[in-house]
């Protein structure tokens, strides 16, 4: 044990005292630690504001208009295509779902879900369990037991 302590003391003696000098200088300039506290709180709050800005703008990244803008920015363009105006394509519309199709989908989902549920026996049996006496559950040892002399 003494070997490790002496080894540690030798290592400390060989390291320069630059860190302790910087700490002493900082302690002289900021004796109560207000600058350090403000610096720490400023960093934390600026990071929180940055995280809020990122999370509040995340839904915009998944919007279809943003995806289209990104595709048009990074799409491979041939040199001749840059001078020609791009043709406007009509947006693809989804096929209208009729009532028959909706009914078939609903019936399929209902049948699938009803097969997932297993039918259990609904008979309940209740047995009275006799408990042995335990002083831990006895009420005569409660806190409101007044000492009578």
> What pattern of helices and strands is seen along the backbone?
HHHHH
Mean pLDDT: 75
Q: What is the helix content?
A: 55-70%
Strand content: under 5%
User: How would you sum up the major sheet?
Assistant: none
Distance between the termini: 61 Å
Counting helices, strands and paired strands, the structural category is: mainly alpha
Report low-confidence residues grouped into runs of 5 or more: none
Shape estimate: flat
In angstroms, what is the radius of gyration?
A: 38 Å
Instruction: Find the count of extended strands (DSSP E, 2+ residues).
Output: 0
Helix count, per DSSP?
A: 5
Could you give a short description of this structure?
With 149 residues, the protein is mainly α. 55% of the residues lie in helices and 0% in strands.
Could you describe the 3D structure shown?
By secondary structure, the protein is mainly α. The chain has a domain at 25-74. The protein is 55% helix and 0% strand. The protein contains five helices and no strands. It has helices spanning 2-14, 18-29, 34-61, 64-74, 99-116. The longest helix is centred in the N-terminal third of the chain and has 28 residues, at 34-61.
């Amino acid at each position: 044990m003494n070997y490790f302590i002496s080894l540690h003391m030798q290592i400390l003696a060989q390291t320069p005292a630059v860190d302790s000098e910087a700490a002493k200088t900082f302690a002289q300039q900021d004796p109560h630690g207000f600058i350090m506290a403000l610096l720490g709180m400023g960093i934390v709050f600026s990071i929180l504001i940055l995280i809020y800005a990122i999370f509040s703008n995340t839904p915009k990244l998944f919007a279809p208009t943003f995806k289209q803008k990104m595709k048009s920015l990074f799409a491979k363009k041939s040199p001749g295509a840059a001078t020609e105006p791009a043709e406007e394509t009509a947006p693809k519309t989804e096929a209208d779902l009729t009532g028959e199709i909706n009914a078939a989908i609903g019936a399929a989902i209902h049948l699938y879900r009803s097969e997932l549920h297993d039918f259990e026996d609904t008979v309940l049996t209740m047995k009275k369990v006799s408990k042995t006496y335990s002083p831990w559950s006895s009420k005569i040892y409660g806190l409101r037991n007044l000492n009578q002399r």
